[in-house]
C-alpha cells in the first residue's frame, strides 16, 4: 500500500471557491490512482489536504486529473495549485491557476518546465497534443476589416472561456486606477487649470509627483 499526501489550494480572489464536488486522480509513470474525492466545499484562499491510497507505487507523478461535477447548481472553481508528496518524501508541484466550469476534467502537468523533447512517455506527448489543439480552437482569428489587424473570431467576449476573458477583478482594479489617476491630476492642478504653464520645469514637477505615486502603487 502506497499513501500519497495531497494538498489542493483555491485562489484567493472573489468567488474562487465552490460548493461543487472536486475529486482527483494521480497519474504516475507506473500507473494511476483511483479517483478520490477531495471535498464538496472550497473557500477562497484556503487549502484542502487528503491522503490518496494506492495498491502500488505509482512511480514519479507526471500528471494529475481534477474532476468537477455539480449535484444541483453550477458553481465555478478557481484552482491555484496542487502539491503531492510521495511515500518516499518527494514533493511534486502542479500549478493550475485556472477556472473549472461545469462538469469537466482538467489534466495538469507537473511544473518542472520540461520541453517537448523531454516527453518520453506517450501519455505526456498526448497531453501536449491535446493542449495545443485546445488552444488552436480557443484562439481562432478573423479579419475585422481590410487593412486592419486580425482579431478573435467571436462576436462577444462572453463566448470566450473564463480563463481567456479579461476578469472582472482586473477590470475593477483598472477602473479604480483610472479614478485614482484622475483624482491625482486634479489635486495636482493638472486638470481645470485656468492659466498657462510658467515653464517646462513646472510641468515636470507635477508629472514627477504623479509618476512617483504610480511607481509606489505598483510596488
From TrEMBL:
<dbReference type="InterPro" id="IPR036392">
    <property type="entry name" value="PLAT/LH2_dom_sf"/>
</dbReference>
<dbReference type="GO" id="GO:0005737">
    <property type="term" value="C:cytoplasm"/>
</dbReference>
<feature type="binding site">
    <location>
        <position position="75"/>
    </location>
    <ligand>
        <name>Ca(2+)</name>
    </ligand>
</feature>
<dbReference type="Pfam" id="PF01477">
    <property type="entry name" value="PLAT"/>
</dbReference>
<feature type="binding site">
    <location>
        <position position="17"/>
    </location>
    <ligand>
        <name>Ca(2+)</name>
    </ligand>
</feature>
<protein>
    <submittedName>
        <fullName>LOXE3 isomerase</fullName>
    </submittedName>
</protein>
<dbReference type="GO" id="GO:0016853">
    <property type="term" value="F:isomerase activity"/>
</dbReference>
<keyword id="KW-0479">Metal-binding</keyword>
<comment type="similarity">
    <text>Belongs to the lipoxygenase family.</text>
</comment>
<dbReference type="InterPro" id="IPR036226">
    <property type="entry name" value="LipOase_C_sf"/>
</dbReference>
<feature type="site" description="Essential for stabilizing binding to COTL1">
    <location>
        <position position="99"/>
    </location>
</feature>
<dbReference type="GO" id="GO:0016702">
    <property type="term" value="F:oxidoreductase activity, acting on single donors with incorporation of molecular oxygen, incorporation of two atoms of oxygen"/>
</dbReference>
<keyword id="KW-0106">Calcium</keyword>
<dbReference type="InterPro" id="IPR001024">
    <property type="entry name" value="PLAT/LH2_dom"/>
</dbReference>
<keyword id="KW-0963">Cytoplasm</keyword>
<dbReference type="InterPro" id="IPR001885">
    <property type="entry name" value="LipOase_mml"/>
</dbReference>
<keyword id="KW-0413">Isomerase</keyword>
<keyword id="KW-0560">Oxidoreductase</keyword>
<dbReference type="GO" id="GO:0005506">
    <property type="term" value="F:iron ion binding"/>
</dbReference>
<dbReference type="InterPro" id="IPR042062">
    <property type="entry name" value="PLAT_LOX_verte"/>
</dbReference>
<feature type="binding site">
    <location>
        <position position="76"/>
    </location>
    <ligand>
        <name>Ca(2+)</name>
    </ligand>
</feature>
<dbReference type="GO" id="GO:0034440">
    <property type="term" value="P:lipid oxidation"/>
</dbReference>
<comment type="pathway">
    <text>Lipid metabolism.</text>
</comment>
<feature type="domain" description="PLAT">
    <location>
        <begin position="2"/>
        <end position="114"/>
    </location>
</feature>
<keyword id="KW-0443">Lipid metabolism</keyword>
<keyword id="KW-0223">Dioxygenase</keyword>
<dbReference type="InterPro" id="IPR000907">
    <property type="entry name" value="LipOase"/>
</dbReference>
<dbReference type="InterPro" id="IPR013819">
    <property type="entry name" value="LipOase_C"/>
</dbReference>
<feature type="domain" description="Lipoxygenase">
    <location>
        <begin position="114"/>
        <end position="219"/>
    </location>
</feature>
